[in-house]
């Protein structure tokens, strides 16, 4: 099996047909062995499949709501593919996603494609230019800037490179489980490749982002505590300071947190100018 597509579903029957149609096109374009694993995290509602497809589809039903991290792990435990694609139910991928990602991953552990980010203000590229995307391979930005990957949905991951620690230490607060995964892969000295093709769309759902700031921060701090028990290569103290700095700026304004963290302020300014292409 070449690729396992793992899709957590939560009250998401309305997304299934379009997801399977996109994966069908990917199957036809890539001519690779693909399997789809739906993991139902809303036991009160049965997953309903429509028409038949040329690739195997499996359904895993959680006995109770377990959250996004455990749900992804439940799918991973059943996956047979050499590579893993974690999709959210409202993600959208191009017809050539799998073909292009397999062509670009090479010997790397993770391949990060470009895509479209939707918001209430319109659409933009996730990475503005190649310089911005190539910066991902430095990996330091994940510690000194933020989680630089919008979603696992624009990544192809080598299954054997997913750290066991990520599957054994499940986050209780939804949000940072993917950030947790990237940092653990950095800790394990995994190689990141990039794919300049625009293959993914992060759909705008209308969620009030400002209302979730506290939950995101709580999830990030839970992640920091878990990383402290494992990491030797990743500077977890610096990561915690970065996370706190960014949170404080959102809550207090930029001036005081930036003065208190002048080194991070300067680094992030350089990042905006040199790599993000601001």
Automatic annotation (TrEMBL):
InterPro entries noted in UniProt: Glyco_trans_2-like (IPR001173), Nucleotide-diphossugar_trans (IPR029044)
One Gene Ontology term of the molecular function aspect: hexosyltransferase activity
Biological source species: Faecalibacillus intestinalis
UniProt protein name: Glycosyltransferase
Chain ranges of the Glycosyltransferase 2-like domain: 4-162
């Amino acid at each position: 099996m070449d690729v396992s597509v793992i899709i957590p579903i939560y009250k998401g029957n309305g997304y299934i047909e379009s997801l399977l149609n996109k994966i069908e096109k990917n199957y036809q374009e890539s001519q690779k062995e693909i399997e789809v694993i739906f993991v139902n995290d809303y036991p009160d509602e049965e997953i309903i499949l429509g028409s038949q497809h040329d690739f195997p589809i499996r359904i895993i039903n959680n006995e109770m709501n377990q959250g996004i991290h455990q749900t992804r792990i439940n799918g991973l435990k059943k996956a047979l593919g050499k590579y893993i694609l974690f999709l959210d139910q409202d993600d959208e991928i191009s017809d050539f996603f799998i073909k292009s990602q397999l062509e670009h991953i090479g010997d790397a552990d993770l391949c990060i494609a470009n895509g479209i980010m939707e918001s209430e203000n319109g659409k933009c590229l996730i990475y503005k230019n190649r310089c911005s995307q190539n910066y991902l391979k430095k990996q330091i930005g994940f510690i000194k800037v933020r989680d630089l990957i919008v979603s696992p949905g624009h990544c192809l991951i080598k299954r054997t490179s997913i750290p066991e620690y990520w599957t054994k230490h499940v986050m209780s607060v939804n949000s940072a489980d993917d950030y947790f995964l990237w940092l653990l892969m950095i800790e394990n000295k995994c190689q990141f490749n990039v794919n300049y093709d625009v293959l993914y769309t992060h759909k705008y759902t209308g969620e009030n982002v400002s209302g979730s700031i506290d939950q995101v921060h709580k999830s990030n701090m839970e992640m920091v505590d878990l990383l402290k028990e494992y990491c030797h290569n990743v500077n977890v103290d610096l990561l915690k300071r970065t996370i706190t700095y960014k949170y404080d700026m959102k809550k207090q304004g930029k001036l005081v947190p930036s003065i208190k963290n002048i080194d991070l302020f300067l680094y992030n300014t350089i990042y905006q100018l040199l790599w993000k292409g601001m």
